[in-house]
Amino acid sequence: MTALEFTYQVGSFSKFLKPFALRLTKDMDDANDLVQDTLVKAYSNREKYAEGTNLKAWLFTIMKNTFITQYQRMVRRNTFIDTTDNLHFINSQESLQFNGALSEFVREDLEKALDQTDEMYRLPFLMYFRGFKYHEISEELDLPIGTVKNRIHIARKELKKKLHMYA
């Protein structure tokens, strides 16, 4: 087959290449580039085409292999290889160090606020805070249960007001 005959036959099959390229790439510009690359490879390797075989299938095979090669290159280019030492434990919970400074400030502010609270509200609140039930506090302080609940509520409101910066 002469170069002119080969060029004519490839040109007649090139209209079938674009839809296939578009299905592979999902982008019109990339599809046009793929068709162009396929035709360039077909023309530059025309001596490898065995006359009498299916030229259309040969062109589709060139296109598919070109697309796969380009895709693999793109994936390799976008692959990030971590060459650092094994620092995977940096964000793990095991490597965290407890910093007690903040909790110390909170504790000091809480103690100050409690000291400034009237004792009739502070005592029921502290007992409740330590785990006593309402009826136990009521019996211990010899107060009605409603009064205990009210005093704990008032103590919470005052503490919330005094410790607003931690809200």
Outline the structure in words.
- The relative contact order is 0.07.
- The protein contains 7 helices and no strands.
- The N and C termini lie far apart (86 Å).
- The radius of gyration is 40 Å and the shape is rod-shaped.
- The chain is an all-alpha fold and 167 residues long.
- The chain has 2 domains: 3-78, RNA polymerase sigma factor, region 2, helix turn helix motif (Rna Polymerase Sigma Factor, Chain: A); 100-166, Arc Repressor Mutant, subunit A (Orthogonal Bundle), CATH 1.10.10.10.
- The longest helix is centred in the middle third of the chain and has 24 residues, at 55-78.
- Helix 1 packs across helix 3 (55-78) and helix 5 packs across helix 7 (145-162).
Q: What would you say about this model in short?
A:
This protein has helices at 3-25, 28-44, 55-78, 101-116, 119-129, 134-141, 145-162. The chain is mainly α and 167 residues long.
Structural topology:
Blueprint: H1 3-25, H2 28-44, H3 55-78, H4 101-116, H5 119-129, H6 134-141, H7 145-162
Feature tags:
70% helix; mainly alpha; 167 residues; Rna Polymerase Sigma Factor, Chain: A; 7 helices
- Name the helicity range: over 70%
Largest sheet data? none
Q: Overall mean pLDDT score? A: 86
CATH class of the largest domain: Mainly Alpha
The count of strands amounts to 0
Order of helices and strands: HHHHHHH
Tell me the fraction of residues in β-strands, as a range. Answer: under 5%
Q: The CATH topology of the largest domain, please?
A: Rna Polymerase Sigma Factor, Chain: A
**So what's the overall shape?**
rod-shaped
**Secondary-structure arrangement, i.e. CATH architecture of the largest domain:** Orthogonal Bundle
Please compute the radius of gyration using only Cα atoms.
40 Å
The SS-based structural class is mainly alpha
How many H/I helices? Answer: 7
**Total separate domains:** 2
N-to-C CA distance: 86 Å
Q: Stretches where pLDDT falls below 50 for ≥5 residues?
A: none
